[in-house]
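hey can u check if this looks right to u? its 94 residues, i copy pasted from the old doc so theres a chance i mangled smth
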Amino acid sequence: MKYIRADLFMNKIAGSAFFSAAEKGKIRAAIEKEPGEDVTPVVHAHWVACEDEYGEEYKCSACGGIQFFDMTPQDEGWEYCPYCGAKMDKEEAK
């Protein structure tokens, strides 16, 4: 499924020479009649390896939440931060 910004789509339709004024009005009414979705933007982050007195830990680059793993978070399958929900697919800055 793909979510779009209805306001931008309606602006494109309004500026189109392909549709008549009546058709543009019907399209706008149909779009406005549809219920909206609660879509939250995805935050992209990565795990940052750190050392402390207890051993190796990993921090979320988005929120700084600390997580301890037996292996790397990637090897354990942690694709999202358990604290902020960031998707761990961003490459670490070098």
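The mean pLDDT is 88.
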